[in-house]
What does this fold into?
Amino acid sequence: MKPKLLFEASVTGSNNFRLPPLDVPDENIIPAELMREAEPPLPDLPENEVVRHFTNLSRKAYGVDNGFYPLGSCTMKYNPKINEWAARLPGFAAIHPLQSEASCQGALQLMYHLEQMLCEVTGMDRFTLQPAAGAQGELTGALLMRAYHAKRGEHQRNKMIVPDSAHGTNPATASMAGFQVVEVKSNERGLVDVDSLRAVMSDEVAGIMLTNPNTLGLFETDIEEIAQIVHENGGLLYYDGANLNGMLGVARPGDMGFDIVHLNLHKTFSTPHGGGGPGSGVVGVKKELEPFLPVPVVAKDESGYYLDTDRPDSIGRMLAFHGNFGVLVRAYTYLLTLGGEGLREVGENAVLNANYLRTLLREHYEIPFDRLCKHEFIATPGDLKAKHGVTTLDIAKRLLDYGYHPPTIYFPLIVGEALMIEPTETETRERLDNFATAMAAIAQEAKTQPDLLTEAPHQMPIHRVDEVGAARKPILRYRA
Ligand SMILES: Cc1ncc(COP(=O)(O)O)c(C=O)c1O
It folds into this structure.
């Protein structure tokens, strides 16, 4: 049943709150022209009804804590609750960014050690923990590239190469940072076409933004050659580390030739995310780029940890303070809990789960790149669309009726009707089997009762919503 809005549940005169008597002079506090003439039309309900309303709404919300969430590229892994315990410790939760350094040595120590751990995990030399999301990490990285080339007097480097499989934030970031985006095509294997890359290289190229594994879930096997081509031409390699999960403890972007890396701590290092935050897009660099990192960085001398702002070549601040500190605490806790071996298990199991699911689904769906994948893979409806008119959107909507959050759909753009499936390492074999059974049942329904899919979802409080309309013309105010 469609949930009532709070305004619709309102019963005039039913609330029973009492305001304390006015304890300030009641004359001329608010200028007459700003005074309300009538009471605002707010919902009228007793407290228990308000609590019930929001509790019931929260039960309708879907998250990784109540179900499988194979949202490709988003790494919706389980978020261990020990992270929440650590982030809520009063010494972390109640500090203020303007406190003296002497009074928050523990927090600075955590940031210092986290930076060292991230260097170890990625093969980079230094990190900034400031950026508040992956996309802001990308912007930081692009600005670092610009500062690096400018320092060397190479102001003509105004082009950024971005493969056609890239996440949309990559070209958007590059152009926000003032670069002209040059697209390189993928080859028939779903990888960067090395000859096309060579053809666009020039002394105007600042660098390339690449994610490895790419958004098809495929490892860029030519990465060393790509790095060589870009470096020989004076460019830099930027690693979009949002897809690092399947690489953890196994391969490091720093060893592949990347100069700048962003990680999505909120995904790979397990902070609950979605719905807009909180995030952390920390950025790692190789030594040559260190002078340009945002200020401040955490440093240490004989008297303890401190925030170093004396960095003349810095690109400046990317955020008012020091990053989303709560996410840093969670990432630190996660890394300490797992240790090196545990981290490698994460990477291996993420890859194992994705490949297991890929082989279960290949009987029922088309798998355009049906070979060993990393953290995720792409499926499409194939004949289900060609012969029965069922689209990816219909399949995603029908999955809701089976109690699953659908995969990412219609991305990456280079595969038509894509379903991008990332199970993550934290799912059991039984869970993957059940999901595959639901997907198989939906494929069967598509052949025999396609209306079940084209009119889905049937079990949700709200049926098919106009998603484009919701994004383009959002209704942000209640009107009776
Ligand atoms: C491959 C890739 N790059 C970059 C981003 C951007 O990260 P954020 O959403 O934290 O800005 C994402 C997010 O989904 C992503 O999947």
Q: What stands out?
A: The pocket of pyridoxal-5'-phosphate is lined by residues 73-74, 133-135, 167, 169, 211, 215, 240, 242-243, 264, 279, 281 (CB under 6 Å). The chain has three domains: 6-60, 81-337, 341-472.
